[in-house]
Amino acid sequence: MKKLRWIEEKCKAPQCDYCTRVCPKGVLSIAGKELQYCTQCNPKYAVCMKACMNNALKIDKNGIIQVIPEKCDGCGACVSECKTSGIKLKRNKKGMKVSVKCDLCSSLKLSNPICVTFCPYGALEVYEVEEDISEAKKEHESEEFYEKRFEPRFIGEGKDIPTIRYREPLSPESIEKRFSAPFSFAILEFPPPGKDARLIDEYGRVKIFDVDDLGRIYCISFPKLFSDDWKLAEYVKHFTIMKIADDYLSAFLTPPEYFNLEMRSKSLNKVKLIARDIINRLEPTLDPEKKESIAEIVAIDTIGFGAVEYFWMRDRENLEEIEIDHPLREILVYHRKHGRCITNLRFTSDRSFKKVMNAILRPLGKSLDMIHPVVDAQLPDGSRLHAQIAPASLTGATASIRLFGSDPWTYTKIMNAGTVDAELGAFLWMAIELKKSQMIITGAPATGKTSLLSSLLVFIPAGERVISVEEEINELRFYDKFINWIPLIGVYKERKDEAMRKGEEVARLRTSLDQITNSLRMRPDRIVLGELRGSEAMELFSGANWGISFMTTLHSKEVGTAVVKRIHSPPMKVPSDMLSMLDIIITLSTDVQKRRRVIQCSEVNWRSRGEIPDEVEGMLRKDTIPAKVRGQIWKEGEEVGFLNKLYEFNEKTGELDSVGKYPSKTLNKYAQSFNLTEEELRDEFKRRAQVLNYLAKNGITNFFDVGKVIHAYYNTPMNKREEFITKIKNILK
Fold first, then answer.
1. Rounded distance, CA 206 to CA 186, Å?
2. What is this structure's pTM?
């Protein structure tokens, strides 16, 4: 059997006490210059076993005496009888005293005890002796100690929630195990065994499957890690933290660097090197792929953001949102190409969820706790975090992180995604240049309204004074090299109302309504509102009446005249004489394959502005409106709005068709403003569509590259634009 030997002449105690600090059970101690440790007595003569009245000490298959914590009542009889101080009383996670004894790290299944591996002077060693333990084995049945494999379960703060994929019986032991999990996240086996999974996309370490009954699954590849590997990872993490604890803040990450991808990568690599070195010392024969994976997991869980790190910092260009419905459910992501996907990662407890959220919020001076159960925050990289815990969230903790990629959406990137086409882009480009077109982009949540609005801002001509107004978070991106852009942020109206009810100071709280009112006093050429929700609509349309054009989005599943009706109704309640300033409505939706599409782009022609086509006006006067046309008409008193459909999505062909029966008022105004003939207008429209097609087909989707080309086009005289496409390469040099 194996025993531990202390070599006194090599030991530097008490100056060096490293072995006592690295001992996972904390049973090594120093008295004067002597090390107190378990000598691993022959079980036949071990006084600790004879002293125990609860049969809480058993012999394992290697002849090592082990403590059974469940049977130990903490009486201390074994401790008082032991002559070498090799067994001690410690409090467990429930706060109860139990005996703890050295087992030469056999429960970890390591080749050498950790104290032997890490002793800097080689003062500890393991040696083999031949002793007859058969009699002791007959008296005591050997007991194999093992760690059960990690099994998902759903227990946490808030209401218990069931799942169709995982179930685990509730018990005090399983609750304690989960809440004391050494890692903040778990890796699940996805796709689940027995399910038909079809691989639909793959890049880097990411594989995306379409799985029966579950939908799309976003899998990050890891080597298969067994319970022994996780136990090793736990101790590697323990020693890694010890190694970096003293100089963690100064040498690794300081708050300003938390969200800098380059700095994070360097810091994580430093910790990975430390973890890899520890693995090589503990388990040198471990598979290299597992070594790398464990080192990465330890680094990410030590100074990173846990599971969130894999999505946020490593795949932000392909993901739009990270969704956490509950810490013990799989994390969801919204993929730019594949829509909402289940992932193979999740948190291990409410506590680990809060730890990660607070690590993200701490540099911003915010926290998620019982005093602040709801948190909204914009992070330095532009991403938006919203998190809630119980009692605000019924089932416990939940969070949503809207990612802000380093390369935002551009119109050409959206073209390549199939949402829009070049012809629609040419029309909107000319409408924005005209400065007299008020534009609203509508659609259900997650259809890409803000992304489309942001992509259109690059078409704003040079020299304009543009004021953007958003609630709480800045998501819009302007190519502000040639425009005067002033970004304003407002708070949610509900937040201001709550502050007023509490009698708090509200002078510094400005809602979107307040900020739009303020912006009208700043002589802007254009106002861009992140989202139209309520009473701010009146001020926005008032500004349009004064000649200040606007662009905004609206959460709405309605199409066409239903949008006009909604804006006219409470809470917006825009009167019909102001409503007639609305010019263009763009509606977004998702198809059956969850791809985002512009399903309709229409102009609203108004009777009071003399824009309704003669044919339609004749139908109105004679009251002979066909049922097909009736859905395109909105009427309030003498005011009539006619929806002139220009583009509509064709589900059969999967393309955006030009369906305009009547001439476009926007293009007619453009021709009048720039003194163009009908043929010159067609040529200009075609040229712009060709420019956008060229950029999209040649992969020119970078925000700054697209902006550079658009503004170079503006600077090219109208009579010299025929050869503009041939000059694009030189423009981008």
1. 17
2. 0.69
